[in-house]
Amino acid sequence: MVTLSYTAAADHPVSLVLRAYLLITVIATFSRPAEAVLSVNATPEYIHSCRKADVQFNSCIKETFNHLRPYLIDGIEELTVPPIEPLVIPKMQMENGHGAVRVRAILSNMTIHGASNYTVLNVRSDMNKYRIDLGLFIPHIEATGSYDVNGNVLLLPVRSRGEFWASFENVTALAKLYGVEVNKEGVKFMKTERLGVGFKLENSDFKIKDAINMQNVIGEAMNVFLNENSAEIIEEMKPAASQAIGKHFKNFLNNAFLQIPLKVWLKDSE
C-alpha cells in the first residue's frame, strides 16, 4: 500500500479533498484521439527500441521512457500527442461515494508545470504477458485552475467553488500496466487493458480562492479538524484517486501504443 505524507498548509476546509484529487493530474496526461498509425518499418527518432531477448531488457525499457521525455515536452505531431509542458487538462471529474469521504469534484481549465520533468527509476516487465511496472519520480509540480466540490467529509458538509493553486514536492509513483496484443489489418500492437497506480509525495502546499464561502468562522474550524484527520481522509479517497489515475493514464498510453506497431519498439516481435 502506498501512503501519503505532506505538510498541512491549506487555508480552507476543502483543501484536503482537492489536494489528493489534484495529485492525480501530475500523472494523467490529456491527449487528442489517435489518427495516424506508423509503418512497421518506421524508425522515429523519439522511439528507443528494445529486444525481448536482451538480458538487460528492463534497463532498455527504462531508457525508452526516459528517451521519450524531451519529445513529450514539445508534443509528437504524427501521433497527435500535444505538448505536456505545460500540461493542459480542460476538465477532470472524480467521485467517491463510499466511506467517510463522499465528495464529487470537478477540476477544470487546469495548467500544470513540471510533469515533463519525470524520471523512470526502475522497470519490471514480462513481455510474454505484456506486463510492465514503472517506478517514476517528479521533483516539483505546480498546478492552477478552477474547482467545484460538493459532498461530505467525516459527516461535515463541504460545498466550495473557485480557483486553486497547488504545489507538490518529490512525487513518486508506481504504475502497473496490464496489456494485451491486438491485431489491426495484420499488424500487431499492444493495448493497455488495465492500469493500477500508487503514489506518494514528500510535501505539498495549496491555496484556494473560494467564490462561495469567502471568510467563514465555521469553515476555518472545519479546516483545523480536517487537517488533524488528514491520514484517515486520504485513506478513504485512495480508491477514487486510483480509479481516475488509471482511466486517464490508460487513455494516454493507448493513444500512443495503438499507433506504434510492436515491431517498431520491440524489434524481435513476431
Automatic annotation (TrEMBL):
UniProt-listed Pfam families: JHBP (PF06585)
Key words, A-Z: Biological rhythms, Signal
Stored SMART domains: JHBP (SM00700)
Domain of life: Eukaryota
InterPro entries: Haemolymph_juvenile_hormone-bd (IPR010562), To_sf (IPR038606)
Gene Ontology terms: biological process: circadian rhythm
Gene3D superfamilies: Haemolymph juvenile hormone binding protein
Cellular compartments per GO CC: extracellular space
Family: Belongs to the TO family.
Protein name, as recorded: Protein takeout
